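> example.struct
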């Protein structure tokens, strides 16, 4: 897996790297009144750079040199994402997007109670093993997603269609 980068995902890491590179380029390309700076002056007040979500970490940056942010990832993120594949709906009561803690892309959808989040990213195939999905959804569990496909056809187990308004509900019976 190679450190915390493996859980973060290559695409997210590439975006993060591009943002850091852009910040460093701005430092090098600073110009005042059309004159480029050959060196940077240390900031009066150091600024904290913080990353949150599936990976988190922070570092102080004062402009005097490069900084390295060591990112740590939530050990539960892969299991959470396996339990909530793209097209599934996650319900909670805080109004905070699951992306903040677990990663993935989510969209708030209409709900009669609480907050309902639809997972919209394409996901990674290694996040969705049948064993992880079934472990996260024991017998008696209700699974909700935007597909008319019985989860048993995708992940195994026996699932019964339940009445629903909007999304499709399935209960695991075996």
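> example.seq
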């Amino acid at each position: 897996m190679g450190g915390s980068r493996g859980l973060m995902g290559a695409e997210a890491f590439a975006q993060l790297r591009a943002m850091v590179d852009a910040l460093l380029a701005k430092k090098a390309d600073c110009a005042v009144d059309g004159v480029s700076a050959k060196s940077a002056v240390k900031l009066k007040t150091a600024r904290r750079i913080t990353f949150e979500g599936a990976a988190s970490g922070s570092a102080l940056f004062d402009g005097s040199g490069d900084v390295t942010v060591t990112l740590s990832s939530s050990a539960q993120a892969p299991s959470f994402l396996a339990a909530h594949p793209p097209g599934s709906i996650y319900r909670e009561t805080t109004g905070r997007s699951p992306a903040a803690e677990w990663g993935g892309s989510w969209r708030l959808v209409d709900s009669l109670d609480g907050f309902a989040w639809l997972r919209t990213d394409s996901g990674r195939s290694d996040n969705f093993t049948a064993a992880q999905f079934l472990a996260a959804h024991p017998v008696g569990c209700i699974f909700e997603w935007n597909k008319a496909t019985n989860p048993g056809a995708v992940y195994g187990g026996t699932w019964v269609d339940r009445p629903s308004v909007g999304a499709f509900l399935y209960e695991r019976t075996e």
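> remarks
Confidence is low (pLDDT under 50) at residues 1-7.
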